[in-house]
Structures are given as structure tokens and as C-alpha cells.
Amino acid sequence: MMQRIAPITKNLIIINILFFAATYVFQSTNGINLRNILGAFYPFSDNFQSFQILSHMFMHGDFTHILFNMFALYMFGSNIEMVLGEKRYLILYFASGLGAFLLFNLTNYIEAQQLISSYNLSSEEVQRFSELPPMMGIPGYETLSAIYSTPMVGASGAIFGVLIAFAMLFPNAILMLIFPPIPMKAKYFIPIYVVIEIVLAVQSNPGDNIAHYAHIGGALIGFILIKMWSKNLQRWT
User: Fold this and answer.
1) Do 92 and 165 form a contact (C-beta atoms < 8 A)?
2) What DSSP designation does 133 have?
């Protein structure tokens, strides 16, 4: 596998770091919260802007969030870029990010419509949730306000597409886990990781602010694209 960092992967990491730094600079100097501008709001929220479909992929919640995402991109991105080539790699990355946005908001739409129907809310009442913080103690209202007023941020969906591509193209690559500290082949570890994301998404635990369906959406698009391109790609063993 490739040891040096490939150019597109390097540039993606740099851009993400610059956006992360800019988030804190704008917040500390001007009081501007870039996450509320560039993060992706629910498409039916008054806060939604079309450019957020792309811009949210370069925003992150905190240092741990960007650290894990960029570390994963550094570890796996270059190998995929070298196999796919720059054009297909960019398609994989951004299409997976788009798939994450679509699946996450599809599940949001289904949940929101169920709650709107159960509370018999008017369209005017629903739009007020774009301006309100979560209302503690009222589960349905808290969920609706979170859907309408909380932006989706992060490159995780795009990176899950890269992870799936790695498992399919480098199935026997050995990955050393942190916990437990044992080696495992990519073709086992990454699918297990995705299954865990599916379980967590279905459970929908209170207080879990991770967009698990976004991860699943990114992984799904990554799987579809690699399957489409597989006849023209070398599979490393």
C-alpha cells in the first residue's frame, strides 16, 4: 500500500483544518458561528441554504471530531486515491458526503412528519422550531426542535465511503485496533463497524448527537460506486 500522502487527500485535510481554524477565529473575533452558516440544516428549515449540502462536509463540531475524521482520511485516503485516480476519488468522496446528507435527512423527514401529525401542528407552528432550542422535558417537541434547528456538520459521511472502498479494494490489509489491541483484516473490521453504526442508528439513544444514518448513507454510496467501477479496478489482496 502507498506510504506517502496523495495530493487530493492532502488538500482535503488542509481544507478541513483551515475551515476548523476559521470557525474559531470568526467566533472569537466577530462572534460569528460558521457552523450555523455552513453546517447543513434540515432542508425544510428556514435556516437551510443550498450551499450547505457541500459546505457541511468541511465543518466539524470540536477538536476530537476533526481529529478522528482527518486521521481516518490520512490512513485510508491515499491508498484509495492511488487506485481510483483523482477524478473518481473526488467523485467517491463528495458523492458519499451527499449520500450521507440525503439518508440522514430522509430519516429526519420521516420522524418529523410522524411528530407533526401526532401533535397536529400547523406549518407556521412547525417553522418556529427553526428558531427554538430543544425543549427539555417534552420529547416530541425536543426532537422536532433538534431536527429544525441543529445543523449537520462533518466529513464523516464522505470518509465512510472511503472506508468501505478500502475494505473492498484492500480486503486483506491488516488493521491494528486500539481496543481491543488485536489485528483484524479490513474486510472484517470495516463491515463490523458499519453494522455497529446501523444498530446505533436504529436504537436512537437519547443524548446521542452522532448522525449514524449519515455514516450509513456514506458507506452505502461508497459500496455502490466501487461495485460499479470494480471491473476496471485492481483489487489488492
Assistant:
1) yes
2) -
